[in-house]
Amino acid sequence: MSRLHSENHLVERIGWLRAAVLGANDGIISTASLVLGVASAAASRNDILLTGVAGLVAGAMSMAAGEYVSVSSQSDTEHADLAREKRELADDPVFEREELARLYVARGVEADLAREVAQQLMAKDALAAHAREELGISEITTARPVQAALASAATFSVGAAAPLALVLVSPSSVLIPVVSAGSLLFLALLGAIGAKAGGAGLLKPTLRVTFWGAFAMALTAGIGAVFGKVV
């Protein structure tokens, strides 16, 4: 008999991984695009750096606030559903047990066994059983607003710092191509890391994030060049 062992499932990473990848991706793309747009308008290096730093701070705060509000709304919905389920369990536990059993029957479990399983699970933790089976809420998927907000703000800052570092080290004459190429390289690396952490193939996520990053930067640089000539 094989020894029992604990397993670490990739789905357990979905909460923080989504926020982290989104934050870093947004940090790189938005800051690089901002830098390229301002640089294309023939601004000085100091102006470019000032704009980039302001974008980093504003973007990090915006990501944190937006992620917190969004995930808090999900958390509020989960708590409301759990409160309703708790009332229903208190009012009619027999009906709730049959409801849980029917869920198992629908998945292919025999009726008598489904009722026995439902009874044993509800004897241990009725609310947890219904939350998991009826509402789809578990420890893995439950909303964590603070964790998501901090992850988004931190990873946005790290991502945004990468294009700013390129501005600092690149000569003014090649600032635009260096920031463009370097930022695309950072995006490709981010796509590969996110895919690896999530257990997905490397090619498709890497190409996807790099393509949309290149599109955003090219569009912003073009707008900066046009307004730089007009203004």
Q: Which runs of at least 5 residues are low in confidence (pLDDT < 50)?
A: 9-13
Strand content: under 5%
Tell me the helix content.
over 70%
Rough outline: elongated
Termini Cα gap: 77 Å
**How would a crystallographer describe the biggest sheet?**
none
Coarse structural class? mainly alpha
**How many separate helices?**
7
Radius of gyration: 25 Å
Order of helices and strands: HHHHHHH
Strands, total number: 0
- Averaged pLDDT: 81
SSE topology:
Blueprint: H1 14-40, H2 45-91, H3 93-106, H4 111-135, H5 145-169, H6 175-198, H7 203-230
Helix pairs in contact: 1-2, 1-5, 1-6, 1-7, 2-3, 2-4, 2-5, 3-4, 5-6, 6-7
Briefly characterize the structure.
The chain is mostly helical. Helix content is 82%, strand content 0%. The protein has 7 helices and no strands.
Q: Overview of this structure, please?
A:
The chain is about 80% helix and about 0% strand. With about 230 residues, the chain is mostly helical. α1 (about 15-40) packs parallel to α5 (about 145-170), α5 runs antiparallel to α6 and α6 (about 175-200) runs antiparallel to α7. The longest helix is centred in the first third of the chain and has 47 residues, at about 45-90. About 30% of the residues are buried. Mean pLDDT is about 80; it is low at about 10-15.
Features:
mainly alpha; 231 residues; single chain
